[in-house]
UniProtKB/TrEMBL annotation:
Pfam families: ATP-sulfurylase
Stated name of the protein: Sulphate adenylyltransferase catalytic domain-containing protein
Biological source species: Castanea mollissima
Chaperone as UniProt keyword: no
Any single biological process term in GO: sulfate assimilation
Protein's pathway: Sulfur metabolism
Transmembrane region(s): none
Keyword Nucleus in record: no
GO molecular function, one term: ATP binding
Domain Sulphate adenylyltransferase catalytic: 2-78
Keyword annotations from UniProtKB, A to Z: ATP-binding, Nucleotide-binding, Transferase
Length: 102
């Protein structure tokens, strides 16, 4: 979707898997992974958490940090789609907890 939606140019983008899974331990590990990717030739880093830490870290100034967008199979569309928070409904459990005791 990133290439198809024009977020990245498909003519100049190489998509690959970096074989170093993050078991998020804190800001030091996020910076280490970012620097390892820079050393491997990456100039783009997609993160969910840690964007602020990465933007302040020395040596990562040229790294383009993109926010992670959640995508999952959408039964109503019959295909994978980005998460739409406006479609979230409160479950019966959450409704009861929220309105418990007046």
């Amino acid at each position: 979707m990133v290439l198809e939606d024009g977020v990245l140019d498909p003519e100049t983008t190489v998509v690959s898997i970096f074989p170093a899974p993050i078991h998020y331990a804190g800001p030091t590990e996020v910076q280490w992974h970012a620097k390892a990717r820079i050393n491997a030739g990456a100039n783009l880093y997609i993160v969910d958490h840690g964007k602020k830490v990465l933007s302040m870290a020395p040596g990562l100034e040229l790294l383009n940090i993109l926010p992670f967008k959640v995508a999952a199979y959408d039964k109503t569309q019959g295909k994978t789609a980005f998460f739409d928070p406006s479609r979230v409904k409160t479950t019966g459990f959450r409704f009861r907890i929220r309105h418990q005791g007046g």
